[in-house]
Automatic annotation (TrEMBL):
Residue span, Putative Flp pilus-assembly TadG-like N-terminal domain: 28-73
Entries under InterPro entries matching the protein: Tad_N, vWFA_dom_sf
Protein keywords: Membrane, Transmembrane, Transmembrane helix
Protein name: Pilus assembly protein TadG-related protein
Length: 479
């Protein structure tokens, strides 16, 4: 009996020891923990993969939405905005993603909003109970034509007669006019057309509204006024001073015209023909284009004078002149309160300045030979070089004229007026058309930035004008 109890006791004691040893045995615990950690790491990595896929899909869907609304909001777009958006999504394989399209448009704007959403199946997060992720996209684009005041300053100097430059410029300028002056722009956009060569013909209407010195002989042959150098340091005209009317005469004889043979008078220093006059603040595209289409290459180049008048017609100090012109019916009554103040955030002021050349030397008849009505009449009948060659001794000819502007002086004055305009927030687009390196540098310095400068060749000038027109009718992505 005792032996039996002893045996059972030994057996029970052995089981207890084994149970106790098993409870204290730690072999394999690290393996279990490592397995758990690996599982967690795989799940975290998997969540990262799902989130990365989600972001890639979101960016793709947002890009589709952005492109769609940009195309749909374009005021030149002839298709219905909804149809454009649907077409973009369909061709991108996301036709079912569109949740809603909202179009708001009026006379001078179009705003398109698209709300899109996709569902993406997860690959790892579904183990955590998240089987899908929502992929949203919201985009709005608007093209809006605010009030825009444009001065189109075009070179019609003699060098434009070469290499079809005049015709190429006309075609480009006409395209520009058609792009910015559309039926839906209403009274939002006004254009000042400023043709220039050796001078700028401001026309009798503007001339009569300036303080022109009565002592200086007045005439009706052409309509230019002299501007003092210091006035190029500011954008406006000086309404406190008297201007002198520019002398009416032609200086040059041209190749093929033998001295003393031909008394040419069609290339006067101040452009003389009505189609060479400034057109102030107009929205009449056909009238502006008809003027441009009559341009002919004339005499020399004074870029700085063209720029000065282009800027002056954007300066609010000119409002009294514009208001008077509106009262006379010369300017549309809708523009009678223009140019707007520089502080007007709703108005964009911009100059498109084009030249194919450089500032050249310019002469004037000395005052003793141009100070009476009879002398004004005399020089309207005689080319200066023709008269000097036929009627004046060679040793006395230089008494009759003087240099009024040098080429270097013209470059300086152009730089001054460009800097003054940029300081007031006027945007300057500069086009150096088949120009010299010197002219390109001068025009590049005048432009608001390097991206506002163009140097086209041949028919490329149309691309330059079209690019500027599109950017003036700027399309902006809101969200």
């Amino acid at each position: 009996m005792n032996d039996g109890r002893s045996i059972r006791g030994n057996l029970l004691g052995g089981d207890r020891r084994r149970i106790r040893d098993f409870a204290h045995d730690e072999d394999g615990m690290v393996t279990i923990f490592a397995g758990f950690m690996i599982f967690c790491m795989v799940m975290i990595g998997g969540i990262g993969v799902d989130m990365m896929r989600h972001e890639m899909e979101r960016v793709r869907l947002q890009a589709i939405a952005d492109r769609a609304v940009l195309a749909a909001a374009d005021l030149d777009q002839e298709l219905a905005p909804e149809a454009v958006v649907n077409d973009y999504f369909a061709k991108s394989g996301a036709a079912d993603a569109i949740s809603g399209i909202v179009v708001d448009q009026g006379l001078n704007f179009r705003r398109v909003t698209v709300d899109a959403e996709m569902t993406m199946n997860t690959q790892f997060m579904d183990y955590l109970g998240v089987e899908t992720l929502r992929v949203p996209a919201l985009s709005t684009a608007e093209e809006k034509i605010n009030k825009v005041e444009i001065s189109l300053v075009l070179d019609i100097s003699g060098s434009m007669r070469h290499n079809s430059k005049m015709q190429n410029m006309k075609d480009a300028a006409n395209t520009f006019i058609d792009t910015v002056l559309r039926q839906d722009t209403g009274n939002q956009i006004s254009i000042n057309l400023v043709p220039y060569s050796a001078h700028v013909n401001i026309g009798p209407d503007i001339l009569n509204l300036l303080n022109v010195n009565p002592v200086n002989p007045r005439h009706d042959y052409s309509h230019c006024v002299e501007i003092q150098d210091q006035e190029f340091d500011k954008t406006g005209l000086n309404d406190e001073r008297n201007y002198f009317q520019m002398q009416h005469f032609q200086w040059k004889l041209y190749s093929g015209e033998a001295p003393g043979v031909k008394n040419t008078l069609y290339d006067t220093v101040c452009p003389r023909y009505s189609y060479e006059r400034i057109i102030p603040l107009s929205k009449d595209a056909e009238f502006i284009k008809s003027q441009i289409n009559q341009f002919k290459p004339r005499t020399q180049t004074s870029i700085f004078l063209g720029m000065k008048w282009g800027v002056a017609l954007l300066d609010p100090n000119t409002n009294d002149i514009v208001s008077s012109l509106a009262g006379q019916g010369v300017v549309d009554s809708e523009f009678s309160n223009r140019p707007a103040a520089y502080s007007d955030e709703e108005t964009l002021k911009t100059v498109v300045l084009m030249t194919d050349g450089v500032n050249t030397q310019s002469r004037r008849i000395r005052q003793p030979y141009y100070n009476s009505a009879s002398e004004v009449l005399h020089w309207s009948r005689y080319n200066l070089q023709y008269y000097l060659n036929n009627y004046v001794s060679p040793r006395h000819r230089d008494r009759f004229y003087e240099v009024h502007y040098t080429a270097a002086q013209g470059d300086l004055l152009l730089n001054n007026i460009c800097e003054a305009a940029k300081a007031e927030g006027i945007i300057i687009w500069a086009i150096a058309f088949e120009a010299t390196e010197h002219s390109e540098n001068v025009m590049r310095n005048c432009a608001s930035s390097p991206s506002h400068f163009f140097s086209p060749e041949g028919t490329e000038i149309s691309d330059s004008f079209s690019s500027i027109a599109r950017q003036i009718n700027q399309l902006r992505l809101i969200n």
